[in-house]
Amino acid sequence: MVATTAAPCRSGGEPRHARNEARDRDRDRDRERHRDDGHYGHATHRFAVQQFAVHRLAVFQALGSALGASVFGTVLSRVYAARGPGGSAGGIGELTGAARQQALHASASSTNVVFYCATGVMILAVFLATRLPGAVRTQEV
Predict the structure, then answer these.
(1) Helix (H, G, I), strand (E, B) or coil at 111
(2) How far apart are CA 70 and CA 120, in angstroms?
C-alpha cells in the first residue's frame, strides 16, 4: 500500500481518502464478523434472488399493461364503431341531437364490454394462478 498525503477537506475534517479508508475498514470488519456467523453469503444470495425477481416482475407488468391497453383499446374502438353514429369517439362533442345520444350510448356500452372482457381475463388469470405448481411453504416456529 502506498502512503499518500492529502490536504484536509474544505470543511476542516479529515481528508476524503482517510474517511474512505476508515469506512472500508469498518465494512470489511463487519463482513468478517458476519462471515463467521455463516449468514453473510446466504443473505447476499437471497438479496440477489429477490432483486432478480423484482426486476423480472417489473418487466412482466410492463409487458402486460402494454398488451392489455392495446387489446382492450382495440375492443373499445371496434365496439364503438359498430354501435356509434360513425367516426371516432373523439368527435362526440361536435355532435348534436339524436346522433349525440347514440354516440354517448355507444361509448357507455363499449366501455361496459371492455369492463366485462377485463373481468373475464382476471377471473381466468386468478384460476390459472391458483393452479401453478409452487414450493410448499412451512411456518417457522
Answers:
(1) helix
(2) 17
